[in-house]
Amino acid sequence: MMKLTSKEFARRPEQWVDQTVQEQATIFIEGESGRAVMISEEDWNSINDILQVVSMSAMAESLRSEPQSQGNMGTAAESTDKTESLDPT
Question: Which stretches are tagged as biased composition: Basic and acidic residues (predicted)?
Fold first, then answer.
């Protein structure tokens, strides 16, 4: 992990890109308007893969817990019976 100012980075951008790719280094760059982080494409892809797996796991867990949180809604046949009993004809 390296910390650079934007001016330091601007002096030798190709060197920092090469170092990031070859060493899978993370570079923190601080400029006047804020901070940025530079990582290799390989690291970026790995992070995205992890986020997708975590997101899918959270979605699956949400789907598994959804029927329990809604309580007993009855079966489709029970719902139909109730609807028919309300029909005035």
Answer: 79-89
For 44-55, b/e burial (b = at least 16 CB within 10 A) is: eeeeeeeeeeee
Helices (H), the chain: 6-11, 13-23, 41-70, 76-86
Domains of the chain, first to last = 2-62 (3.40.1620.10)
Q: What is the pLDDT along the chain (89 residues), one digit of tens a residue?
A: 899 999 999 999 999 999 999 999 999 999 999 999 999 999 999 999 999 988 888 777 777 787 655 555 555 555 555 555 555 54
**Distance, CA of 73 to CA of 67 (rounded, Å):** 9
Contact (CB, 8 A) for 32 and 7 = no
- pTM for the model stands at 0.61
